[in-house]
Amino acid sequence: MKQTNKHYVSEKENDKQRQTESGRGRQRARVSPPTSLREAGAKGKERGSAMAASPLPFLLRLRALTLALTVVAAAGKIPASRTPISRDLYHSSDSLLLEIKDLVARHSEKLSMDTIRASNKGYSAELFVVTFNHVKESVDNGSKVHVLLSFGQHGRELITSEVALRLLYVLTEKHKIAGVDLSSFEKMLENLVIKMVPMENLNGRKRVEAGELCDRRNGRGVDLNRNWSVDWGKKEKDYDPYEENPGFAPFSEPEAQIMRELARSFKPHIWVNIHSGMEALFMPYDHKNTTPNGASAHLMRSVLENLNRRHFQDSCLVGSGGGAVGYFAHGTTTDYMYDIGKVPMPFTFEIYGDETASNNDCFKMFNPVDKTTFDRVINKWCMAFLILFEEGLRNLRDAQLVSQGPLDNWVPIGGDIVEQSVARKIGRERRKLEGLDLGMQELRTYFRLFMLSTFLLMFMFCTRISSNRQRDSGNIFST
Fold it and tell me: Does residue 173 sit in the same domain as residue 290?
């Protein structure tokens, strides 16, 4: 167990911290039920204190689980889950992305969608990025808040992509969530531009759909939430080489490369990495037992605590990832977004965890399996995002952190945009042609100046030579 940092956590959170002694569920979950999941450093929100009172069973179960995972890793696969994917509740990856495409086509005045492909050392990945801009014809003069959301970074967390789909419906077609009128959020949405990646780890999701229900890695076995450069490659004592493979280098994976370039060009003010395994609202840092210093930390904590109070009745764990729970994760996306990407508000949200799931029941551990819970989780977190947008917009403007800069300028390094709206293509090509014409005009101007300068220099040189010859001739005659 890692010692928690109580200096940064409220008194209400201290009780929860003492119950999360075994480690951090949000970044890495062992194949165990959430009670044993807590014990093994996996995901699962702590609500009881029986484990803290009885450490011996915990240690025995942890040792047995670690041994089992070692054997499994040697065999090259994780044991099958007991609960299959609920096909009546969950979309397949293909059907979910197709439904999003149809939604974008129906609401082209608010939505656009880009498909990005990248590859590295024989491995390719494809990401879909949906952009919501409530008033697309208006010019983004820097007053709009940029929000970047990533769902499905771990393949087994299917519920996160379902929240992404429903949130897009809420932003375009659905005007109520569980009977709550959303008209009060309309004006707020006019001040946002939201880019959403509904399924960051599409290749990993395909592995899960093929039967590897406990797998969280991408298509070549790398944990995308360990492949970023901040504190990359560092291994804790309980490091699991199967689940936490950070890749052969920072940003070795095309998915991480695309997300990095998207963040660089879009310059989000708010970033949220959405996971499942427990219910929590996290801020940096993941790799150490502290939060950032100064005004930025106060701003992030204020937003999360207001969201927790307004919407969750203070039921969510709030704090830094490494400090609030006590399990360190290295090379995570959120730490990069804060330290390197300079995002003012980078968060990780954990939206669901089943503490009753048995040891290898990964699907049930990370995803609701009945319709009532499924709908409740989705509605609750869609509303949570609307409140987050409202809180973030207010706090960013109060702190005067809404930066200037162009909005629509992102093209991933090493990747190609293979699908985008016709209007955006035409606009971009027009800008390219205008730039080319301006460049040619400048070249012609420089050429004329060069020729004029050359002529003047030659004239001066010839005049000087002629003057010298005349002077020499006069000297001869005078002699």
Answer: yes
Q: Residue 321 sits in which domain range?
A: 93-419
Cross-strand partners of 127: 116
Q: What is the pLDDT of residues 106-161, one digit of tens each?
A: 999 999 999 999 999 999 999 999 999 987 655 555 689 999 999 999 999 999 99
**Contact residues for 59 (Cβ-Cβ < 8 A; gap 6+):** none
The catalytic residues are: 350
In a domain, 261, yes or no: yes
Q: Tally Cβ neighbours within 10 Å of residue 23.
A: 27
For residues 317 and 280, give the distance between their C-alpha atoms in angstroms, rounded to a whole number.
Answer: 5
CATH number (domain holding residue 389):
3.40.630.10
Extended beta strands in 134-174, E state? 145-151
Cα distances (angstroms) measured from residue 75 to each of 219, 245, 345: 18, 16, 41
Which of the residue ranges 138-147, 290-299, 335-344, 448-457 has the most confident prediction, judged by mean pLDDT? 335-344
CA dihedral 428, 124, 335, 114 (to 10 degrees): 30
Q: How many domains does the chain have?
A: 2
Question: pTM of the predicted model, to two decimals?
Answer: 0.72
> What are 478's strand-pairing partners?
none
Contact (Cβ atoms closer than 8 angstroms) between residue 407 and residue 140: yes
Q: How far apart are CA 196 and CA 290, in angstroms?
A: 29
- What tens digit of pLDDT does each residue of 381-411 get? 999 999 999 999 999 988 877 643 333 333 3
Q: Are residues 22 and 156 in the same domain?
A: no
Contact indicator for 341, 263 with CB cutoff of 8 Å = yes
447 residue type, one letter = F
Residue finishing a domain among 382, 398, 419: 419
Whether the CB-CB separation of 129 and 262 falls below 8 Å is answered with yes
List, in sequence order, every residue forming a beta bridge with 16; answer none if it has no partner. Answer: none
For the chain, give the number of residues. 479
Q: How far apart are CA 385 and CA 391, in angstroms?
A: 10
**Token output for 250:** 């920072």
| Beta carbons of 26 and 282 less than 8 angstroms apart | yes
Kindly list the distances between the CA atom of residue 464 and the CA atoms of 47, 147, 314, 414, 470, in Å, as whole numbers in the listed order: 95, 68, 89, 57, 10
**Domain identity same for 241 and 384:** yes
